Amino acid sequence: QGQPVESGGGSVQAGGSLKLSCVGDRYTYSPYCMSWFRRSPGKEREGVAAVSALGGRTFHSESVKDRFTVSVDNAKKTVYLQMDSLRPEDTGTYYCAANPREWCSTWWANEHMYAIWGLGTQVTVSS
Fold first, then answer.
1. Side-chain-facing half-sphere of 80: CA atoms under 13 Å
2. DSSP code of 29?
3. Which has more pLDDT, 9 or 28?
4. Interatomic CA distance for residues 47 and 39, integer angstroms
5. Cβ–Cβ < 8 Å for 126, 11
6. Which tens digit of pLDDT belongs to each residue from 33-90?
7. CA dihedral 48, 53, 54, 60 (to 10 degrees)
8. Nearest CA to 47 among 124, 1, 99, 87?
9. How far does CA 16 lie from the centroid of its chain?
10. How many CA atoms lie within 13 A of 43 on its CB side?
């Protein structure tokens, strides 16, 4: 499978918004689960959000629930992460990950369930 490519990161002030994109070139089969993870300074990588192919079920971590929204455009083979009301603690490198064998489920935040990873995009939120 092709490596997904993230974009859309940048520097914003607290309260601002960013929209991340993740483009994959071979996710034309289903089921699959696409997720966003982040690694913040001094912390381990954590799951942020996930969405199944065909715009199915979505998952968001408690720390971003009601602020971030994950979505998918299957025609464009692109997964998005709309991030609103950003906080300094959202700072980190955001990675796109894919599991091309299963629909997203309760395991979605387990990084070991993903074999395909992008290189990441940096998000910096200043206070």
1. 12
2. S
3. 9
4. 9
5. yes
6. 999 999 999 999 999 999 987 667 899 999 999 999 999 888 888 899 999 999 999 9
7. -20
8. 99
9. 18
10. 14
Q: What is the pLDDT of residues 17-42, one digit of tens each?
A: 999 999 986 655 566 899 999 999 99
| 60-to-11, 68, 105, 122 alpha-carbon distances in Å | 22, 8, 12, 20
How does strand 33-39 pair with strand 46-52?
A: antiparallel
Residue keyed to tokens 């192919």:
53
Q: Which helix (H) or strand (E) holds 114?
A: none
**Which two three-digit tokens encode residue 16?**
């601002």
